[in-house]
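Example record

One chain of 306 residues, shown exactly as stored in the release files.
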Amino acid sequence: DRPAGLTAREAAAGPASAGAKAAESPAAGTHSARGAAESPKSPTGRATEPPSAGRAAGSPAAGPVPVESFSSGSLIPVLGADDLLVVSGEGDRRSDYELQDLIENRCREVAPVTVLVHDIGYVNRRLGEGQYFFYSVIREGILLYDRGRTPLVPAGPPDWEQVRQLAGRDFERWGQQARAFFHSAGFNFDRGEDRAAIFLLHQSAEQIYQAILLAFTGYKPTTHNLDKLRRYTNRFSLELALVFPRDSEPEDELFKLLLAGYVEARYKEDFSIRHEELGILLERVGRLLAIAERICGNHILRIGKR
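Predicted structure tokens for this chain:
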């Protein structure tokens, strides 16, 4: 806990060192890879022929990413989820988000999963463009299921120099927005304007998670769900995953306070947050920004050496 008189600069200081499996929906296919970025020993699979709509498969979902030096048997809960890419068929009346929530809820009692859903037309367009994320999924994913109805187009290799340039540009744009929100949150924190500060911290965290995804994959899902963005990025760095691990009741409650900053803090009369809790969140988001700056910068340099 931190004293109520803490300034934004003091609160933000501190230790700020600056996989997936695919599951099928009734009208979908899936790619997945588990722990692909966390452990050098993570299994990867390679489809011998182009997948088709209604496939379930696995992928690191991020292409070449930094690995952490710990064994797959020692994965902590925040890194133990399977990541699924579900490719749905054309004409499915359910939205991507409806299918995503359906699959995650059905799998919850069996294994934690993080799901992305896109229809076959969208995935084929991105493959035809040589998009980095989908190329990596198809090339390195573990195929789990295939209905065999509509094949995916062959995945051509990306232009790695273009990938590097886009990653740098996108991270700078979204990272700058994240830093701006963070600095504004610090200003409101110092003035005791806690509702405004928690909303701006939520915005800062959302923007930096988006920046990380763009730097590592060239892909940004259209969601404001901070927990999903957190889970999408956990695989890129153990240090990143441990900023908000949600592996205990106090950690879970702390992250829920940050989630509440998006709507409850602005509109609910009974919303409350202690100034000390806000100071902890200010330090955490500051740490998140510093880690993102370092790991994304290193990753972009690696892309240029491919």
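Notes: DSSP finds eleven helices and five strands in the chain.
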